[in-house]
């Protein structure tokens, strides 16, 4: 299956270490559980595949023929494009600015530029990134309008595409149940945002096996931890008696 690449959702670094209970970025120290990482990755893949690729194909048919005359069986996007879909979705959910998302993509482009990339996708194994994929990332970085169009398509996919042509939406639903709940993805993606103004009021930190939640900087918090919304923490955990006392 070839080498597996892991990308930091927050900063775009490829220097991510797999520890016992989480994946931890060596550059920005962001940590995320393996399950959450792959859930967000899968959503990014679907956002690109169905919210962009399939949608464009079916909208082209509607424009040309006035109806959908045939269905498609499109290949999954490369790993790096699935990451782009996920990081843009995370930015939309977490209200991250264009500059913050751009910073992650810039770091990723720099890392890919130092690697020997495939000229085209492999039919036998999953392709991490190709030369064309790197060119696309650079295009998004240099063309804010192109980035905006992609972000809008992903945002519409995230919201269930209610304003998309019903025939197009129906065709995509046939391919992949677009109406499924994205609540879990929203919860995961919110944890990526590093906005200081939100941290103390909206987010707290938990360890993989702990039963208590902590505020940032608590000495009881293990080195490997993840950030979740305070609302979720109150439902599933108890407050730390050291740092969460009023």
Question: Could you please describe the fold and organization of this structure?
Answer:
The chain has 246 residues and is mostly helical. It has two domains: 156 residues, no CATH class; 44 residues, no CATH class. The protein is 50% helix and 8% strand. The protein has nine helices and seven strands; from the N terminus they run βββααααααααβββαβ. The protein has a three-stranded antiparallel sheet with strand order 1-2-3. The protein has a two-stranded antiparallel sheet with strand order 4-6. A two-stranded parallel ribbon has the order 5-7. Helix 1 packs across helix 6. About 3% of the residues have low confidence.
What brief labels describe this structure?
about 250 residues; 2 domains; 3-stranded antiparallel beta sheet; two-stranded antiparallel sheet; 9 helices
**Structure annotation, total helices:** 9
Query: What proportion of the residues is helical, as a percent range?
Result: 40-55%
Mean pLDDT: 77
Outline the low-pLDDT stretches: 194-200
Question: How would you characterize the largest beta sheet?
Answer: 3 strands, antiparallel
User: What's the β-strand tally?
Assistant: 7
Query: How many structural domains are formed by the residues?
Result: 2
Oligomeric state: single chain
What best-fitting shape do the alpha-carbon axes yield? globular
Ends: how far apart?
52 Å
The ordered H/E elements are EEEHHHHHHHHEEEHE
Structural class assignment: mainly alpha
Rg calc: 19 Å
Strand content: 5-15%
Strand order of the largest sheet: 1-2-3
